[in-house]
Structures are given as C-alpha cells and as structure tokens.
Amino acid sequence: MQQMLIDGGSSVSVIDCLEKQMPFWDKTLEVMVATHPDSDHIGGLSNVLESYIVPLIITNQQTKETADFDRFQQAVTRQVATGGNHLIGSEGFHFMLDNNVDVSILNPSYDQAQSVSWVSQKSETLLSAVETQSVPADTDYNNQSVVMMVSFNQLDILLTGDLETSGEQALLRKNLINEVEVLKVGHHGAKTSTSPEFIAKTSPEISVISVGKNNRYGHPNAEVITQLEESGSLILRTDQVSTFTLSSDGRTIWRDQPLSVPRLKVLIANWLKNLVFFKTQTKTGSRF
Ligand SMILES: [Zn+2]
Predict the structure, then answer these.
(1) What is the distance in A from the centroid of ligand 1 to the CA of 10?
(2) Residue ranges per structural domain of the chain
(3) Which of 200, 240, 244 is nearest to 220 (CA)?
(4) How far is ligand 1, taken at its centre, from the CA of residue 207, in Å?
(5) In angstroms, what is the span from residue 284 Cα to ligand 1's centroid?
(6) What are phi and psi of 252, to 5 degrees?
(7) Ligand 1 centroid to 26 CA: how many Å?
(8) In angstroms, what is the span from residue 244 Cα to ligand 1's centroid?
(9) Strand 85-88's sheet: what is its strand order?
C-alpha cells in the first residue's frame, strides 16, 4: 500500500485526515506534492513532514516570503537531512505508485539545469542564479503549479493545482492533455481557469472543485460551472459535499463506497484542507 498527498491545505487539520486514512502503524507517506507555495496549499504540509517519513517531496521552483513557506522549507530541509529527497517537479518526470499507478508531471517545464533544490540554506546563491520566482500573485505565478496526470488502467485523473488559462493553453499546445475521467478543476473553479477548449479536450466525467463555503473570492465561477454541466460532467464541490472519496478498480469509479476489489482510493477534502490523497491497494482480496 502506498500513499501520495497532493497539497495540505492551510492548517494542521490535514493531520486528522491522514490519521483516518493511513493505518496507525504506517508512518511513511511515500510521496508529497506541493503544487505551489501559496498558504492554502502548503500551510498544513510542515505538520505532515513533522509527523511522517516522506521519502519523496515534489515542489515547483518557486519560493515565497511567508511564515508558512518558511516553516515548510525548514521542514523539507529536515526531511532531506534524514534521507528524504526533494525534487523540483518538471514536465516529463514520472513515477509509479505500487507498480501500477502511473503519475506523470505535465507542468511546469524547467530546463534540467534549472532544477535546483531550495532545501539547503546554502542554496541561496544557486537560487539567485536560476532566478527562483519569489513573486507575489499574478497570473504567471499560478501557471507554475505542478500539474499531474494519475493513471490507473483506464482511469485518468488530472490534477491542475491553481493553473490558469494560459497554462492550460500551453498544455493543449504541447498535446499533453487527453480525455480524462476525473478533473480536479484548476484554481478552485475561478473564471481564470477551465476554458471551454480545456473542457472540450479533457471531457471529464467527474469534475472536482476544491472550494470553501461562502469564500471571499466568489469561487467557483458560475460560468465555469455552467460550461462543465453543459459538457455532461458530474460536478463535485467540496463546499457542498465536503470531504469525499472516489475509488476505482481502474475502470469503474465509485463514490464513498468501500470495496474489496483491487483499487485506487482518492480522497478529496474541503477547501480548508484543500488536499487530494491517493491510496493504492492493488492486491486482490486485500482490504484497505
Ligand atoms: Zn489555491
């Protein structure tokens, strides 16, 4: 059984989520991905790094001058000092979970020479050499989100972080996107993401929107919702259904339904946690 956590929401509450999902004896979270350094995505991850062994931590190249990012950076540095690996995620990298769940990184795309880890305090000179993007929010900032395709037999799940329209366009231009069964809708359903072209190309059966109730940004955008509905996609919003799980045997997708067949389990939690958690159990007959 292997687990992967993508983003950790803004607070320590991510730990409750993990404790419910991980067996009590399992203190190894195989992969952690921080899609980008905004606090609503990485705020809870330092707590996770303090509670679990995380052999592989994937982030993008960006850093951010916030207390949350400082804590995260220090926690990543400590993991690396005790044997963990920090990888700057970049297009073309892929790995397997439990030998049959393929995870491909589609974005951002960095030159290999640019892939410099920011974990070590000594890396400051390296970081300035590659112009690490410690920048405030603008459209290009979200477009460096780590985007991943998770594939298990016939099931494809696309996770776009806070990617916006121009980032989506780049993926379409590079022909990296095909039809998917599940789309984690970009940037909490904001109108700056999920263009009609992107919906047409991905044609998701299920669209997942991680968004808080009555959030001050007005996410998700009504037009985005309408376009997804018109495409025939089932929309699951965490402000309406809170935390939920999807399970799949690689063909069929079930919602909130325990199964005893080999499957991939995906937990999607609400905006405050803002996380996607994958758990594989691919041995026939084994229980989760
Ligand atoms: Zn966000």
Answers:
(1) 10
(2) 3-281
(3) 240
(4) 16
(5) 37
(6) -95, 150
(7) 29
(8) 19
(9) 85-88, 56-59, 31-33, 3-6, 276-281, 263-268, 244-248, 253-255
pLDDT per position as a tens digit, 185-244: 999 999 999 999 999 999 999 999 998 888 888 899 999 999 999 999 999 999 998 888
CA of 169 to the centre of ligand 1 (A): 19
Q: Is this prediction's pTM over 0.85? A: yes
Give the chain's largest Cα–Cα span: 52
CA 36 to ligand 1 center in whole angstroms: 8
Give the contacts of 204 (CB within 8 A, at least 6 positions apart): 158, 179, 180, 181, 182, 183, 228, 231, 233
Give residue 91 CA to ligand 1 midpoint distance, Å: 21
DSSP state of 280: E
Question: Pick from 21, 32, 1: which is nearest to 269 by CA?
Answer: 21
The whole-angstrom separation of Cα 148 and Cα 35 is 9
CATH architecture of 3-281: 4-Layer Sandwich (3.60)
Q: How far is the CA of 194 from the centre of ligand 1 (A)?
A: 14
Q: How far is the CA of 271 from the centre of ligand 1 (A)?
A: 9
Instruction: Give the chain's mean pLDDT.
Output: 87
β-bridge partners, 131: none
Q: How far is the CA of 30 from the centre of ligand 1 (A)?
A: 23
